[in-house]
Amino acid sequence: MPTQLTGQKMFLAGKWVKSDRTIEVRDPQDNSIIDIVPAASAEDMMNCIEEAKDGAKIAASMPVHERMRIVHAAADYIENHAEKYARTIAREGSKTIREATIEVARCIQTLRISAEEARRIHGETIPFDQMPGSENRVGYFYRFPIGIIGAITPFNDPLNLVAHKVGPAIASGNAIIVKPATVTPLSALLLAEAFAEAGLPSKVLSVITGYGSEIGDVLVTHPAIRMISFTGGLEAGEEISRKAGLKKISMELGSNSPVIVLEDADIEAAVESTVSGSFWAAGQNCLGVQRIYVQESILEAFQEKFVKTTKEYNIGDKQSELTDMGPLITEKEAVRVERMVNEAIEKGAVLLTGGKRNGAFYSPTVLTDVPENCTIAKEEIFGPVVLLYSVSDLDTAIRKSNDVDYGLQAGVFTNDLGKAHKAIAKMDVGGIMINDSSDYRIDAMPFGGTKNSGLGREGIKFAIEEMTEQKVVCFKLSN
């Protein structure tokens, strides 16, 4: 029985709006049409920005307790409709229902933390009398909202990564315009629904669906937009940086995440953690494990257990609780991953398991002996493929881990505190997880990377710092 299309509306400055032009939202599992959403025009985006100018004033004037109430109420709404949100994530994207349920729970937490951080946007007193001649001056600085934030979000976490931009923006008194991924807009619209139900004033939040080529440049280049928060690929990030002009830019651009497993590690725990870290959301995860450097004395044991566990992965229907991994977001993406794996095999890599494609599905794949001149060794795979390497010692593992143009997060498995601290000091990444894979994250921590992995930090408190400016106040006292 075909799905009945309801025809979603976009959320333009607090109003649900249709468009004559539409975009089909398809389930990557079978390419069936789930629904349709508006294809906004450049004019729609211009209108949205004009409305957001008023929205920024409204947001800035909201007292902290009201911001907190609204964000908490949005979290309550999602919690009360959690199954609906999870089913939507699992339908429009790549995540299984179990993965989607976890994302919904994280979104709720992201919003609750945002509400609480609203009360902690502090300033500091400044001792002006540290400078001779300023003995009669006292003052402080405080943080104020920057205005309108443009957010561009990816498909792989279509609810929580939007919440990571919307929650801090509203908590800090800003207006925000979200342009969600074209292939996964429904979850972002559901987030807008939650804020509408929570009583967020009109014009503060917009979720505009459409093609980046038609509305992206308007959002990125408009002088009224004071900050762009982007999560996505390096190439798109570089393009945004060139076009944005004089505004704040926060970017999370992906990675090629390494994990080091030393001979004193708990092999069972390392295998369990890195298999999950490699294939969560079909490997379409910026924190996903891509390279594993295993000390040669334990390589055989680790490899045997890793391949065995990988082969036990259940691939299939995303809506089934029994499924471990679903499809990639499109068949085109699966073909891209297939091409990268085939190139590596042609150049001498050994396929230990996987390497098979069926439409948008690509089996969990493990490669070893991958030559360094392969694309897959240096670039982000963003698919269910992991590379195993043998290393003689920690120094070699650190050197090889750093030998890419990315540096988001890394993992190190060891029970030697000295070796752990050496890795912490020497690895060029934004986060390092000891006895966890690179995939570990909580929503309250600072999140971002070095090199081509991005600019700035997300994580609610740290996003709020990016979304606010400091204003200095100084009183000259009379004698």
Automatic annotation (TrEMBL):
* Domain (Aldehyde dehydrogenase): residue spans on this chain: 16-473
Alphabetical keyword list: Oxidoreductase
Tree of life domain: Bacteria
Q: Which InterPro entries match?
A: Ald_DH/histidinol_DH, Ald_DH_C, Ald_DH_N, Aldehyde_DH_dom, ALDH-related_metabolic_enz
Pfam families, sorted: Aldedh
Family, per the entry? Belongs to the aldehyde dehydrogenase family.
Please report the name of this protein according to its UniProt entry: Aldehyde dehydrogenase family protein
Per the UniProt record, the source organism is: Virgibacillus sediminis
The upper taxonomy is: Bacteria, Bacillati, Bacillota, Bacilli, Bacillales
